[in-house]
Amino acid sequence: MAEESSLIKAGIVGATGYTGVELVRLLLAHPQVELAAVTSRSDAGQRLDQMFPNLRGHCDLVFAAPDVKQLGRCDVVFFATPHGVAHAMAAELLAAGPRIIDLSADFRLRDAELWAQWYQQPHGAPELLPKAVYGLPEIHRQQIATAELIAVPGCYPTAITLGFLPLLEQGLVDVDHLIADAKSGVSGAGRKASVGSLLCEAGENFKAYGVAGHRHLPEILQTLNQLAGQSTQLSFVPHLLPMIRGILATLYARLSDHSKDLQAIYEQRYAAEPFVDVMPAGSLPETRSVRGSNLCRIAVHRPLGGDTAVVLSAIDNLVKGASGQAVQNLNIMFGLPETMGLQSISGLP
Amino acid sequence: MAEESSLIKAGIVGATGYTGVELVRLLLAHPQVELAAVTSRSDAGQRLDQMFPNLRGHCDLVFAAPDVKQLGRCDVVFFATPHGVAHAMAAELLAAGPRIIDLSADFRLRDAELWAQWYQQPHGAPELLPKAVYGLPEIHRQQIATAELIAVPGCYPTAITLGFLPLLEQGLVDVDHLIADAKSGVSGAGRKASVGSLLCEAGENFKAYGVAGHRHLPEILQTLNQLAGQSTQLSFVPHLLPMIRGILATLYARLSDHSKDLQAIYEQRYAAEPFVDVMPAGSLPETRSVRGSNLCRIAVHRPLGGDTAVVLSAIDNLVKGASGQAVQNLNIMFGLPETMGLQSISGLP
Amino acid sequence: MAEESSLIKAGIVGATGYTGVELVRLLLAHPQVELAAVTSRSDAGQRLDQMFPNLRGHCDLVFAAPDVKQLGRCDVVFFATPHGVAHAMAAELLAAGPRIIDLSADFRLRDAELWAQWYQQPHGAPELLPKAVYGLPEIHRQQIATAELIAVPGCYPTAITLGFLPLLEQGLVDVDHLIADAKSGVSGAGRKASVGSLLCEAGENFKAYGVAGHRHLPEILQTLNQLAGQSTQLSFVPHLLPMIRGILATLYARLSDHSKDLQAIYEQRYAAEPFVDVMPAGSLPETRSVRGSNLCRIAVHRPLGGDTAVVLSAIDNLVKGASGQAVQNLNIMFGLPETMGLQSISGLP
Amino acid sequence: MAEESSLIKAGIVGATGYTGVELVRLLLAHPQVELAAVTSRSDAGQRLDQMFPNLRGHCDLVFAAPDVKQLGRCDVVFFATPHGVAHAMAAELLAAGPRIIDLSADFRLRDAELWAQWYQQPHGAPELLPKAVYGLPEIHRQQIATAELIAVPGCYPTAITLGFLPLLEQGLVDVDHLIADAKSGVSGAGRKASVGSLLCEAGENFKAYGVAGHRHLPEILQTLNQLAGQSTQLSFVPHLLPMIRGILATLYARLSDHSKDLQAIYEQRYAAEPFVDVMPAGSLPETRSVRGSNLCRIAVHRPLGGDTAVVLSAIDNLVKGASGQAVQNLNIMFGLPETMGLQSISGLP
Fold first, then answer.
1. pLDDT digits (tens, 9 = 90+) for B192-219
2. Does B208 lie at the interface with A, CB-CB under 8 angstroms?
3. Helices A137-145 and A324-333: crossing angle, nearest 10°?
4. Which residues pair with B241 in a beta bridge?
5. Contact C199 A197 (CB under 8 A)
6. Is B187 part of the contact surface with chain D (CB cutoff 8 Å)?
7. Is there a contact between B345 and C58 if contact means CB atoms under 8 Å apart?
8. Which region holds residue A57: left if phi is over 0, alpha if psi is between -120 and 50, else beta?
9. Fewer CB under 10 Å: which end of chain B, C or N?
10. Exposed, middle or buried by CB within 10 Å (0-12, 13-18, 19+), for D336?
């Protein structure tokens, strides 16, 4: 481990949720990071290991009230808050020095108006939107490397975007009728007490939700349009799985060009990507195979040789879908090996 | 309860699986049925309540070896066997008198060749195929009423067919690009010991399977083609849910006619159907709301007013997807109120 | 079904929790009961089937604000409220006519002081305590038959009491060192939004709680003392299971008399009890075998022929542990067959 | 990472089960170990990552048929086999050079006769029993350091022994009436296809098993007797939890000496133990807080200040209950820091 002086000082604002504790877990184990500050408005003074029993024996940190001065001494500050917090604090914090990696939706949409419509409040820092970089390394690695402000993608957007990406970049599908049928474990709904997330409501049960329009939709479309170089249309239906972690997105697209070797295209596009695993054609990625891991496992199918491509994209919604991706961004921003601190093997079973 | 002489004598062949015990449960509680014989090759001599602890106190039946003579004394015989058994016994049994309600796939496809391809064995009674009636009451009620041999539909086909039916009957969608993304609890895989169905393999996990081609596909297409009056093309992707019971099928179809009131069409089509519940537009049917029930709950969506119809169709795979539907067929065949013995309310939570 | 005029008019106060919806389900299916009123302070005006999707198609009831006048027209009123509500309304309601079956703890302890200590508020109707009957039919059937006010036992107390009963009545064990290690599904914690009951907190997890002293302890001791005819000492440790329904209590007691045939004693004591199933010696009752059922399944063991009796007692915490037992009490109070409306077979799997 | 020549060459016999894959995961990540050989009789030739999807991208190993010559080139060989395999191969393998760490029960009991009774076959290498060391570091660290043959303790024995240890060493309890009520996730039953381990049988269900006498009983008694310096009597009742990983043992013992500060005794006894975490008095250890971790978390209670001590002991049955403990033994045997490769933080949620 390097000398203390070269360790990256990190702070986390609003670490009382699931992406927060996952980020703590990853950063505590990161050889080049020193987790210096962890804040929470409501739980200041409480030890983290009181709230999160897995941390006991690994962490003596105590939640502090968010303080721009203290956070300002960090090299990087993560926001693991719900939307609406980062955009209020970002400008002041950036001025104090740290780079920001925001896990919330605050800086994901380039259009402040669109953001305001979907998140039902005015955008708190529209002037920062042009400098914010959408933190999907597989597309924006270059910009991430020099960014001051990263908007970590949402969980569904990560799985869906990585799944469609090669088809759209290569113009192989009808972009007007994309379908993303996505299924997520309940941790995606967060750690707040809500009836719908109770074990007695979500356990031994399955249902769709957000069919009329989910907040991740504009974010996904923004990226898909960019990849396709034109406007795309997506039917996105999320569903709630009776389990804790994992997202599988089953993507359907109508091939406009039947002659291409989809498998080769995916393998090629992602050959250099440490966190996208293109499985052999016809594979069936399981969410448990990436539990706790930053990998996105993808498999491409053309059922019965027809004209519909079916792509399966599996991630851990808290890791590649949030906190793991945030650390991947940190590694890029600070010139570290991109896989540092992100190489653990999923436990099985 | 009616006098013993007017009770319908029922027998079940191969009742050691989940559809079997579910059928036992339903028939024991059916006011007009006397469960007279329950057979199993491998477990003859064992009491049912030894194998199925829920039956203790409710049932003194013992598994008998399958015997056409004994079964021949029944008014109706159910086959709760895997495929390949009913077609071997059906002819002899029909000759002995009883009507047959087969929960297996043996008589679902009209084309014996097609059946042989998908089930990897020659069809054992092709001459019976013309008289076999596909037991989906919402379409075939008339034929069921006078049938001697019923092929109870598969679980996925039931949910998917009922979901698409009004759109296809009315010619409202592009039939070349139908999509059925279906998710089922593990009981659909049966009670046999197999590694993939272990709690440690299927629990806290999610994945697609059978993408290359699932046995239910030809069965679904047979009915969709019939409803559409033309050849249809379906992408059908099943998935395994980390729970015991339930299927939710999320169906996507491209509307060719945007002017129709889909909600009204569904409500009208199913108004007289006791076991199809068309929920208010935009509803989100949950599988737990039909657990143990013979209901299929459907909700129609047109996300963002686009040209894609999204239909959600929820059933209990063991009830409306198998044994409940079998009893519904029995009621029709024997002139009983169709809902008899099938009116229990799902437990919640 | 009997004529409307002979139907028992029932009301439920506070039916928005899990015992509430379970009671609705049981009463809707009860051939001699008409569910006339269902109240909720916070949700008045909402249809029950909006809150509880399993009721859709079975129930058109709407929550009303609690109104003693309206409730007063019922023959029986159930309280499915948390503690602290029934004791405030009981006196007035009894005066208006109905009998009361209270599922809360308000009238379970005979000692108002003791109640106040454990429930942290003064008892609201101590004058009613003498007339309140502890609704465990296996002990108090006679008193229940003529009672005006029933205190339905808690879930853990039901399983534990029925498990120990024959040993204590017969004076077969050392009463100073009884041990009840009990495990319950999460529905026992109720339907309120609380972090500990989230799927992400309680799922794939197991822990003890309430070790220092659980509110059910005084209630259990009250009955055990009564059965033993002396003061007993119990170590009671409850645990939270990662599932929805079910309680298994594993009871340990040191035999003072080794010569007795425990199996025969249990069988004899419960021979006439419709809802206690004494399984063959050495059996292993499973909670799923009583899911949705009012049965308590018990098995007695003497491991390695030693001097420790181990009794396993399984119930559904919402049924025999609450709402089923409430209906069993109603049947006794109104002179109906005790098993009426309580005979359904658990679904399996 | 040290030069290749100083890496410890490890082999695993029978790595197709859950303890096997867990061992692979731990050893692949161990900085001082090179996993050189992984064998399986039935699956020779198959890649590990074909059988275990979590290993894809982390491991190119292929199962080989067990070959004493090849295994003989290892420094240490682990047996992750069911009982009956290690004792057949151990002598020959030890002669070839490697040290052996056996995760099965073959060498846990010192008495070959007793072993034969419980495991229903003659012991295959009774002459090795005297040199076998029971691999519980908290008791046998010294002997482990110089051992050639380690018998890794069973999962239940680990949790139960560590929980009782300080009470027995200090003679604080009545040793004739110890009670261990233990609950385990289904992975304890292994990866073999068996109906009882199906999700549809073990999910949403709870039950006791092995009450008449579980194979872990003689092993536990052997150690408890050793700790107490006399014969002890234990009622041990295991139960099956509807989840994948974790054991919580709830231990009951009657205090003979009420004056002792149990908390201080436990803290003192385990102060130097890296993998036993004595939590503050009255804590409630959760199995999820040690998921994937080698920690055993313990909390001591004296409910209501009575004379019964209640000790809660939580482990991950596959880690501290098997493979993690195996690696802990390896570290001791090879003079490495005991915590090497065993310091990861459990994921939460």
1. 999 999 999 999 999 999 999 999 999 9
2. yes
3. 40
4. none
5. yes
6. yes
7. yes
8. left
9. N
10. middle
Q: How far is A251 from chain C (nearest CA, A)?
A: 27
Nearest CA in chain C to D291: C205
Is A22–D347 a contact, with Cβ atoms under 8 angstroms apart? yes
E strands present in chain D: 8-13, 33-39, 76-79, 99-102, 132-134, 149-151, 178-184, 207-208, 234-240, 247-254, 276-278, 296-301, 308-315
3 state DSSP class of B34: strand
Instruction: Give the count of beta carbons closer than 10 Å to the beta carbon of residue B89.
Output: 21
CB C219 within 8 A of CB A223: no
Burial class (CB in 10 A: 0-12, 13-18, 19+), D193: middle
Label residue B5 by pLDDT band (50, 70, 90): low
Written as one string, the DSSP assignment of D255-293 is BS-TTS-HHHHHHHHHTT-TTEEEPPTT----GGGGTT-
**Before D122, cis peptide (omega within 30)?**
no
Sign of CA dihedral D323, D329, D331, D333: negative
Active site residues per annotation of B? 155
Cβ distance B21 to C286 less than 8 Å, yes or no, reads no
Which of the residues of A are catalytic? 155
At B224-259, the pLDDT tens digits run 999 999 999 999 999 999 999 999 999 999 999 888
pLDDT tens-digit map of D100-112: 999 999 999 999 9
- For residues D141 and D332, is the Cβ–Cβ distance under 8 A? yes
As a whole number of angstroms, the distance between CA D94 and CA D75 comes to: 10
- Scanning every residue of chain A, which has its alpha carbon at the shortest distance from the alpha carbon of B302? A212
Strands (E), chain B: 8-13, 33-39, 76-79, 99-102, 132-134, 149-151, 178-184, 207-208, 234-240, 247-254, 276-278, 296-301, 308-315
Q: Which residues in chain B are closer than 8 Å to A197, comparing Cβ atoms? A: none
In three-state secondary structure terms, B253 is strand
Contacts of D204 in chain A (CB under 8 A): 203-204
Of A21, A57, A345, the CB nearest to D348: A21
Rounded to whole angstroms, the Cα distance separating D88 from D90 reads 6
User: What is the rounded CA–CA span in Å between residue C20 and residue C29?
Assistant: 14
Q: Is B214 near chain A, with CB under 8 Å?
A: no
Distance from CA of C256 to the nearest CA of B (A): 32
Chain A, nearest residue to D187 by Cα: A349
Q: Which C-chain residues 254-283 have CB contacts (< 8 A) with chain D?
A: 254, 282
pLDDT in tens, B132-152: 999 999 999 999 999 999 999
Using a CB-CB cut-off of 8 Å, the residues of chain C touching A202 are: 199
Cβ pair A310, A302 in contact under 8 A: yes
B345 Cβ under 8 Å from any chain C Cβ:
yes
Catalytic hit among D59, D74, D155, D200: D155
CA C109 vs. chain centroid, Å, equals: 14
Q: What are phi and psi of A179, to 5 degrees?
A: -130, 130
For strand B276-278 and strand C76-79, is the pairing parallel, antiparallel, or unpaired? Answer: unpaired
Tell me if chain A has a CB within 8 Å of the CB of B308: yes
Specify the long-range contacts of residues D144-147, CB closer than 8 Å, at least 24 apart. Answer: D144/D329, D144/D332, D144/D333, D145/D332, D145/D333, D145/D335, D147/D99, D147/D333
Residue A2: CB atoms within 10 A of its CB come to 9
Cβ–Cβ of B206/A286 closer than 8 Å?
yes
- CA dihedral B66→B72→B76→B82, nearest 10 degrees, is 30
Among the partner residues B204, B289, B290, nearest to C204 by beta-carbon distance: B204
Residue D332 pLDDT level (bands cut at 50, 70, 90): very high
CB B238 within 8 A of CB B208: yes
- Tokens linked to C179: 């041990």
Structural domains present in chain B: 8-153+321-333 (3.40.50.720), 156-317 (3.30.360.10)
